[in-house]
Design goal:
It is elongated, with a radius of gyration of 17 Å. The chain has 171 residues and is mostly helical. It has helices at 2-8, 12-28, 35-48, 51-67, 73-88, 92-108, 112-128, 132-146, 152-170. Helix 2 (12-28) runs antiparallel to helix 3 (35-48) and helix 8 runs antiparallel to helix 9.
Length: 171
């Protein structure tokens, strides 16, 4: 999609124009599956720091996908994007709720990279709202369950998560 290429080329405003044009084309063709376009738009707005616009678009993606009864891996990605917006808006509780929905689908499809990323995000958000015991419980469970399949990123992230949690527990 042209919008994706423009994002890669850091032409975010042009990407948004192309994505909006794609939405118009979808509507004219009476194609209801526009949740992916809204999710991409939300990601662009996240990159631009326009979180209200990002939230509007991610909520549209959730609503459309829900009306289509989408339970695909794309839905996990949509929930993840929505959670990120809430996290950046410092609204960790709805962020965790959306990440938990994303995690259910990632597990359903056994998508290890999603499972690791989303689990790390949930643990980070719980620590940020001072739920250190919950974060520690989740981290220990995660590490035991997925120890054999950890990505290099998660191997580097786990010590930071433990440090952050333990500092919070002793504070």
């Amino acid at each position: 999609m042209l919008g994706d290429l423009l994002i890669i080329d850091n032409q975010k405003e042009q990407a948004l124009r192309e994505l909006h044009a794609a939405l118009i084309a979808f509507r004219k063709a009476k194609i209801p599956d526009t949740q992916g376009v809204y999710k991409i738009m939300a990601n662009v707005y996240i990159q631009m720091g326009k979180y209200d616009n990002a939230l509007e678009n991610s909520n549209s993606a959730v609503k459309i996908a829900g009306s289509l009864k989408d339970s695909s891996l794309q839905m996990s990605s949509i929930y993840n994007t929505t959670a990120l917006v809430y996290y950046y808006l410092k609204q960790e509780k709805p962020a965790v709720a959306y990440w938990e929905k994303a995690l259910v689908l990632a597990k359903k499809y056994q998508e290890k990279s999603y499972i690791q990323m989303i689990s790390g995000n949930i643990i980070t958000a719980k620590a940020r709202i001072n739920d250190y015991k919950g974060a520690l419980k989740d981290l220990i469970f995660f590490e035991k369950k997925y120890a054999k399949d950890l990505s290099a990123e998660m191997i580097g992230r786990i010590p930071y998560l433990y440090l952050n949690i333990y500092i919070g527990l002793i504070s």
